[in-house]
Amino acid sequence: MPKLHANLPPCYDLARQLSAYLDGELPADLCHDLEAHLGGCPDCRVVLDTLGRTVQIVHALSDTPVSLPADVEARLLSRLTGA
Amino acid sequence: MPGPTITISVYDDDTQLLVGLRRHDPDACTCMVKRFAPLVFARALRLVGDADEAEGVLQTTFIKACNAIDSFDGASGLGTWIYRIATNEGLMLLRARRQSLALDDVAETLQPGDLPDSRVAWPEDPLRSTLDSELRGQIEAAIAGLPEGLRLVVMLRDVEGLNTEETAAQLGLSPGAVKVRLHRARMRLRESLAGYMARPEEIDDAEAAR
Ligand SMILES: [Zn+2]
Question: Do B1 and B84 sit in the same domain of this protein?
Fold first, then answer.
């Protein structure tokens, strides 16, 4: 399978702006160029959508409950309470 | 033991908890551990990559937080403040382990391998919109598989929520380098998740039926 965008030079330049675009950190002129390109390039739209979903998944790690191993918690509490 | 016994349920918000911590109430300390230690440990583990070292970071973080609780100004949330201490401790440990952070293991320009390979759309699947344990395992493994120079950047920016300038200052990188590394890290994570996320639901059903 050929690499995506192998024959599409505009995608190469624009694809590396997708992350900054998601963060709202892309200068207005580049933003305009990128949006014009996205309008006509389904591949880049898929990459943008899936990259955005990836970032959401990573963000979700920041407050997803996890269980602390009981022995780790016990050792922490005993250190803190000086027991 | 002096003082009344206060049940942990008293501290059902962080403001109350902070009052208890400043009174040096032992129950407040227990409550703080119950509330924040799991995420501190998970974050430390992702940063330093070793359970024993992550436990060291966890303990140092809470000891420092307890000692500094009177100087905490409450400008950020209590959790945010504790997580920042943990991040600093984790990075300090990484630096001490090897004299410096292994940030030079990646080039700061876009590499051919960073171009998007997968162009398969990810179906909107409500079952995969939340971070269930399977998806969690996928993303944790993908993050663990990144070179440190990309892993630390995506951790600080997308998990810890630092901005570009704060991340640059923490890691001793330029803001431009942080942006390039963040993009590369996210693109690699996207490729890592693609096989799982783009898998049609029918295959799941077929597997389940077997
Ligand atoms: Zn394109």
Answer: yes
